[in-house]
Amino acid sequence: MKQIFLGGLTHRAIAPLWRPFLRGASAIFMLHRFAHRHLGDNAYAHDLDQLRGYLAFLRREGHPIVSLGTLLDSFDRGEPIERSVVFTVDDGYDDFLHVGLPIFAEFDAPVTLFATTGFIDRDCWFWWDQIDYLFRTTGRKSARVDLAGDVLSYAWTNPAERDEARWDLGHRLKRVSELAKCAAIDSLAESLDVAIPHEAPEWCAPMTWDEIRGCVSRGVEVGPHTVTHPILSRVDTERAATEIRGSWQRLRAEVPEALPAFCYPNGDPGSFTSRELAMVRELGLRAGLSTYQEYATARMLSRGVDPAAVPGRFSLPRFTYPPSHAHLVQIVSGLERAKETLRRLLPR
Ligand SMILES: [Zn+2]
Predict the structure, then answer these.
(1) Which of 131, 132, 237, 282 falls between 20 and 30 A from 25, CA-CA?
(2) Dist. CA 115–CA 202, nearest whole Å
(3) Per-residue pLDDT averaged across 103-123, rounded?
(4) Per-domain residue ranges for the chain?
(5) Does domain 2-122+202-342 have CATH number 3.20.20.370?
(6) Could you tell me the distance, in angstroms and rounded to a whole number, from the CA of residue 144 to the centre of ligand 1?
(7) 290 alpha carbon to ligand 1 midpoint, in Å?
(8) How many CB atoms lie within 10 A of CB 178?
(9) 218: closest CA among 109, 72, 90, 66?
(10) Model confidence, pTM
């Protein structure tokens, strides 16, 4: 019932009604992977036709699609670009270059990329891809994982059950320290009798620095996203500083025109603290990006690093990439902002 009701609220004829709620607010979206032939059944990948559909809709409806740098400029001038939308793509996978960027280019839509510099340097690849690799590669049907003093046992008889084990472990690893996470992945590798290669396999490979510079020459902005992508609240102060400062220095050495806006791994409220906000500010960066599910507003830029005052300049919110057209409309029409008021009227 609620779904049908929301469907009606996002209908073409109704959606313009929410526009007043949107005043001064912009939607920043967060994307990751783009479906391509090497990726297989990776559930994280964005469907390309859906992305084309979203961009066509935004163009047709006259939403300005702007880069993050342009949005920050407009906010700092106190002249928000009404109904504007920003697309950001995290991590630095090469499917952005080969698959994602050409689609944004079709619609002349700017994009802002957040690069994990150790990944681009091929010094590391992501822990969730390593887990995926281990489960995909093994011939075994069970695993025992040592995780922070506990032993987790998994068994599967088909790919769906194996994926369930992978999701469960991935979920648990997001909640432990970096040290415990790395130890658990080593124990998984041993249990599955698979060695983790030093370099990322083709389906989860990074862009090169030359390729990133190529993106920049095509109008893409690029900002730092740590060196190795740890959850910053789960590492000590020295490591957090190295991850933030190191990624900015490395990025700027390779891409002098890099955007001085930092993006926190995970980005949810538990994944960074006022310590990280202060580090980003002290580094002279202009902004920080979180994954608070809200609109970004000019007013946020005047807020400091007080953890009680987030989202602010150093923790600007971003929406998860909309899973459906109705979700996209719900956000860009302003309905999401009006929802709090409307919720009382919606049938439960
Ligand atoms: Zn990331």
Answers:
(1) 282
(2) 18
(3) 97
(4) 2-122+202-342, 127-192
(5) yes
(6) 27
(7) 11
(8) 18
(9) 109
(10) 0.91
